[in-house]
Amino acid sequence: MASVARSCTRLGSSATAASRSCTTRTIASSTARRVCIRQTFQDSSRRGYASGPSGASSRTPYIVGALALAGIGGGAYYLRNNPSLSQAKEGTSGEPRGVFNPTKDDYQKVYNLVASRLEEKDDYDDGSYGPIIVRLAWHCSGTYDKMTNTGGSNGATMRFAPEGDHGANAGLKAARDFLEPVKQQFPWITYSDLWTLAGVCAIQEMQGPVIPWRPGRTDRDVSMCTPDGRLPDGAKEQSHLRAIFGRMGFDDREIVALSGAHAMGRCHTDRSGFEGPWTFSPTVVTNDYYKLLMNEKWSFRKWDGPKQYQDVASKSLMMLPTDMALIKDKEFKKHVERYAEDNDVFFKDFRDVLVKLLELGVPFQSKPEDRMELKPTTAE
Known about the structure:
Layout (H helix, E strand, L loop, with lengths): L1 H8 L5 H7 L39 H21 L1 H6 L15 H17 L9 H12 L19 H4 L8 H13 L5 H15 L32 H11 L3 H8 L6 E2 L8 E2 L10 H8 L2 E3 L8 E3 L6 E2 L1 H8 L1 H12 L1 H17 L21
Antiparallel strand pairs: 1-2, 3-4, 4-5
Helix pairs in contact: 1-3, 2-3, 5-9, 6-9, 8-9, 11-14, 12-14, 13-14, 14-15
């Protein structure tokens, strides 16, 4: 606002000129010191407040009044046309960002908006954005390297072309775009917290386990983008899985538990090159992935695409070489058997390993006991 006031002083002593500069906005006396722009998801408008500058001494009361009105009107016009400026400084209730400390209730509101959008927007694969939101949370976290302490969910560096264009991240722009209106409504949350919270929301809304989560991630610049090749390649087998997940600090049991995310979603020829869903219910979190691995007969699909498997019975499901590696390797297979036999055992291990994945490399100021469990809307 100081810069607005300074620009107004160039009007000189002419009250008439100052008045003309303010005619673009009519400000009622009861709201002269406040501009309120209400925000809802439906109208995508924003909420902000602008305070007029302190009045400077002047030789005539007319100039004081003209400059004050110009400052307030100009400031209101400026913030209305540059809403990101006011949003960057405000929380959900309009408090300055330096003062605003989000509570669990605030994060629940973010969760609820994500859940609402998941319910309302059914124009994606199998009628749900849920699986690709989980993939976004997984891929932004799965770049962690324990040896260099680089990568992981802290930073949200997939916003930038070097990382966003990695082959393993093909198609994830749809997930990032899906969450952008949420970020606009809650500008105080970082992208890295939003993406991981949204992943938790998607799993819970698809009837998966409740995932403890905590905020504390910061957004970083393009210089922190990770190199390509840190995410799993579905065309490879068990040695590759152990190398990729071992770099992050996961053991065999955790590798198999994380692979259970393939219960959700499907592959696309224009992204990974592979095609098809892993299960018959790709928008519901269950242990069916493990049951199908163990109980169905699988053969190579005869097609022009990369090597993948299809179920013999219906020829409508697929498995990747990395999936089949889980039953070819005896150490992996014993965990596949455990999860196929008991959905509760799978949910417990999946919950624990997902918490670990989403927190890799994050320099939290909070403690693990500060994690919160956000309420699924399906429980209401």
